[in-house]
Amino acid sequence: MKGTFVILTATLSAAMFAYAEENVASDEYDYIALPQINQVADLEDDDNDGVINARDLCPDTPSLSEIDNDGCGTFVKTSKLQSLHILFANDSSDIPPVFVSQIRQMAEFLNTYPSASIEIKGYASKVGSEEYNLNLSKRRSEAVEAQLLRYGVERNRVRIVGFGDTELASHGDTQVAHALNRRVTATVVGYKGAIVKEWSIFTALPK
């Protein structure tokens, strides 16, 4: 009886081993590779706002903006700098140092709102010929443009024009009037307003 039990145990073990080997072999031959999936939609998020490019209707949203499901921010009115007014010395296109910080602030503003651009207008006083004053006004516009570019503003977002002495801020024939006419003004184009920032630990609650 004991011998019969040993034989049965050995037979059962051999059968189980053979079954296991058969299943392993079967698993090896029955393996089917998963099909390759071609991704069509753009799953990248270039402006890092949490909305993929394929769904993002506002691809240039500033960092940390509070956005909707389309990746667009909420705009509100702001008192931030949106214009420039720079005065020049007689017969000069050199930017006086006192106005450099104003240009830097404008560059920071434009870099914060990449959808906005700027139009720079140069002027001259009545002193000198019309042709000379026209060229001088253009050089003044170009000087301001060059300063903005140094601060990282892209050239295709800047438009310059010179008016010479055709559009005077002051029509008097005095030193003060001439000084007021030697100028560059600039206005922001395409600015919708400040974008509401999302909450963070640094967000200040209204009082």
UniProtKB/TrEMBL annotation:
Which domain of life, per UniProt? Bacteria
Q: Name one Pfam family in it.
A: OmpA
Q: Which SUPFAM superfamilies match?
A: OmpA-like (SSF103088)
Do the record's keywords include Signal?
A: yes
Cell compartments where the protein resides? Cell outer membrane
Query: What Gene Ontology cellular-component terms does the record carry?
Result: cell outer membrane
Q: Does the keyword Phosphoprotein apply?
A: no
Q: Name one GO molecular function term.
A: calcium ion binding
- Predominant place of localization: membrane
What are the residue boundaries of the OmpA-like domain, all occurrences included? 82-192
Residues making up the signal peptide according to the UniProt record:
1-20
Keyword terms of this UniProt record:
Cell outer membrane, Membrane, Signal
Q: What is this protein called?
A: OmpA family protein
Organism the protein comes from: Vibrio diazotrophicus
